[in-house]
Amino acid sequence: MITKEFDTIAAISTPLGEGAIGIVRLSGSDAIAIADKVFTGKTLTKCASHTLNYGHIADNTRVLDEVMVGVMRAPKTFTREDIIEINTHGGIAVMNEILQLILRNGARLAEPGEFTKRAFLNGRMDLSQAEAVMDIIRAKTDQAMNIAVKQLDGSLSNLINKTRQEILETLAQVEVNIDYPEYDDVEEMTTKMLREKTAAFKNLLENLLKTAKRGKILREGLSTAIIGRPNVGKSSLLNHLLGEDKAIVTDIAGTTRDVIEEYVNINGIPLKLIDTAGIRETDDVVEKIGVERSRKALDEADLVLLVLNANEPLTDQDRQLLALSENSNRIVLLNKMDLPQTIDTAELPHDVIKIAVINATNIEQIEERINALFFENAGLVEQDATYLSNSRHIALIEQALEALDAVNSGLDLGMPVDLVQVDMTRTWEILGEITGDAAPDELITQLFSQFCLGK
Asked: For binding K(+), which residues are annotated in this chain's numbering (predicted)?
């Protein structure tokens, strides 16, 4: 494949900060020549592809750092352009100096995601695979990473492309039947074929859409609000799940004044744990703000962990929280079971989990309940399954299903076949937006702008 002509871009591709190694990356037709101007060692323009070369980066006679320079020649590179990767020591000052030197010698600072955008524009990957690159970077659990890797390998692309090809063949057959009718009942035959094909396409897309719930959770995590009145053990539960003392724990009610957010991996499920300020009436201005934020977190949460104190009678505040969270995906936790139980369980749901955070009693039951609530106890991830996890992909699959419903509606109303096939064509176009074959330029630009600089 012939790549498009672009200028040469450069950026720091490793996180800024102190580290053993930092990488300054260049991509473009002049990448090797530009790097050769500032590299003392071998002549990079004469180096074989996919080699690592020892030397120094120097600004005239001033040596900036001792480096290893990777030379990769097109088309067998990430962008299908010539690529240089300067492996330097991972300090902010030295990486910035080398980048500025590269820019002064003819490269342009890359835009966010521009390396991956070039890989897409040069046919190295399609749009869904490009999005999978960022999913791999952002993956918070091994399960989320596995889904992203499968998407990068083309599992979703292959399924979508195969379906689009079958739709195209169906449309071609409809055109043949319309233009070259050999039988009197050609319209009846064409209608029957369209119904059968539409049913098959709907079944495939509906099955794919069923994976969206799991996939989206594994990609983005469950927003999990830990709620309860003050001093029932919310922060202790957060600290236990995190395995560190992130939240301050005291016997003083109202210690948590604001919402604390942290990610944790629970049995392969990323949970965005939100430790809220205890919801109660208060005159403290700061605490009052925290309580309002807690109510907002409750409204927006995918999962609610309501913590009650088994060592105290049920209060009006407890009853209020039980009512507020009744329609949520809720797990009620009865904490402090290591102390004498004084709470009346008659007013509590039958499926309450009795725990003691202080000695980790029954904490594993929380994981089991989460699996039951969101994954129906059916194994978190099937190894060979193709998962929808991207909100954009999910929305497009839903639109494609609506277009297929329009095909059926048109057939039911007795509309001419050549009009009905407009909706079938629309299905083909919508699926093309997933892979980028039919995506508008504005969408492509917006998607890549979300990538990190240097990727």
From this structure: 231, 250, 252, 255
Q: Residue 51: which residues within 8 A CB-CB, separation 6 or more?
A: 70, 71
The annotated binding site for K(+) is made up of 231, 250, 252, 255
Residue numbers in the known binding site are 25, 85, 124, 231-236, 250-256, 275-278, 455
Q: Report how far residue 130's alpha carbon sits from residue 107's, in angstroms, rounded to the nearest whole number.
A: 24
Question: 3-class DSSP state for residue 66?
Answer: strand
Place 293 in a pLDDT band, splitting at 50, 70 and 90.
Answer: low
What pTM does this model have?
0.70
DSSP string of 356-375?
A: BGGGTBTTHHHHHHHHHHHH
**Binding-site positions for Mg(2+):** 235, 256
What local confidence, expressed as pLDDT, does residue 442 receive? 79
The predicted model gives 437-450 an average pLDDT of 80
pLDDT at 140: 75
**Is the peptide bond between 75 and the residue preceding it cis, with omega within 30 degrees of 0?**
yes
Q: What are phi and psi of 423, to 5 degrees?
A: -70, -35
Between 3.40.50.720, 3.90.1170.50, 3.30.1360.120, 3.40.50.1820, what CATH number should domain 9-125 receive? 3.30.1360.120
What average pLDDT does the chain have?
82
Q: Where are the domains of the chain?
A: 9-125, 133-211+388-436, 223-375
- What residues are designated binding site for GTP? 231-236, 250-256, 275-278
> What are the pLDDT digits (tens) for 173-220?
887 766 665 555 556 777 888 889 999 999 999 988 888 777 777 777
What pLDDT was estimated at residue 12? 94
Same CATH fold assignment for domains 133-211+388-436 and 223-375: no
pLDDT digit string (tens) for 325-344? 888 888 999 999 989 988 88
Topology of domain 133-211+388-436 in CATH is Four Helix Bundle (Hemerythrin (Met), subunit A) (1.20.120)
Q: And the tokens for 100?
A: 């500025």
How would you classify the pairing of strands 51-59 and 39-41? antiparallel
- Residues making up the annotated binding site for (6S)-5-formyl-5,6,7,8-tetrahydrofolate are 25, 85, 124, 455
DSSP 416-433: -HHHHHHHHHHHHHHHHH
The SS3 assignment for 351 reads coil
Mean pLDDT of 335-364: 88
Q: What is the CATH number of domain 223-375?
A: 3.40.50.300
Give the model's confidence band at 286: pLDDT under 50 very low, under 70 low, under 90 confident, else very high: very low
Q: Which helix (H) or strand (E) holds 300?
A: helix 285-300
Neighbours of 323 (CB within 10 A): 9
**Element (DSSP H or E) covering residue 52:** strand 51-59
